[in-house]
Amino acid sequence: MAKRYTDSLKWDDPFFADLPNDYKLLWIFILDKCNHAGIYKLNPRMAEFCLGTKYDWNKVLGVFKGRIQSLNEEKWFIPKFIEYQYGVLTDTNRVHNSIIQILNKEGLRTVLGSKDKDKDQDKVKDKDKDIIKEIIDDLNNTLNTSYKTTSSKTQQLIKARLSEGYTLENFKTVHRTKHKEWKDDPKMNKFLRPETLYSNKFESYLNQKGTPEVRRNAKGEILMGDTNIPLRHFDKK
């Protein structure tokens, strides 16, 4: 077993001081026998042989008051072990990298050091910024507008839709569908904006059937179907 740090101040820790002597020994034994990621593979027979004591293994975790976490019937994990032995884990350190791999395998990614978690969060933020920019750029190109990617309200709406699983291509589809439908409608073209397009109606906009193209004559009058007859000729008088 590799060398590791031991906490000489544990004797002043009320948690350790209040443990029965047999459990003090067991605590030290587990800290010495766990792997370098703080995971102890249960071996009651060896523990009892080395310590000369019989334990009620159904009560051990309760005695240790949450200092040890059960992963399954065979493995325990000491959450504070990594922080004490290594501080903040970084994936550029070979030793740390092997620990990170073990934690990932055991489903313990959340215990990684703050720098590693912050790095992951930064990657997510950068990815969000990139896709938000692509969405707004496409909107502006489609509508000939100048909406900003820095608008907190617009970012919030886009992130809400992205969290629901919608993609960049979905946004592009909505841009084109609603632009085609509303661009020539004086009452509706004012709604060609992020606040409306990215609202909770986004799904219905995305899945609506294509809107027929509006045809107009030289005077700007809407034509009926494939004919050259203005719709106003069909208005009731």
Could you list some keywords that capture this structure?
mainly alpha; 3% strand; 237 residues
Report on this model:
The chain has helices spanning 14-17, 21-33, 44-51, 60-63, 79-86, 94-105, 114-143, 152-163, 168-182, 194-197, 202-207, and strands at 39-41, 69-70, 75-77. It is mostly helical and 237 residues long. The protein folds into 2 domains: 8-112; 117-234, no CATH class. A 3-stranded antiparallel beta sheet has the order 1-3-2, with helices on one face. Helix 7 packs parallel to helix 9 (168-182). The chain is rod-shaped. The termini are far apart. The model has no long low-confidence stretch (mean pLDDT 84).
Sum this structure up briefly:
With 237 residues, the protein is mainly alpha-helical. Helices cover 49% and strands 3% of the residues.
Got a strand count? Answer: 3
Low-confidence stretches: none
Tell me the overall shape: rod-shaped
Percent of sequence in beta strands: under 5%
End-to-end separation: 97 Å
How many domains is the backbone divided into? 2
The main sheet comes to: 3 strands, antiparallel
Radius of gyration: 32 Å
Amount of helix: 40-55%
Task: Give the SSE order as H and E letters.
Answer: HHEHHEEHHHHHHH
Task: Identify the strand order in the major beta sheet.
Answer: 1-3-2
What is the number of helical segments per DSSP (H or I, 4+ residues)?
Answer: 11
Query: What structural class results from the helix and strand content?
Result: mainly alpha
Question: What is the averaged pLDDT score?
Answer: 84
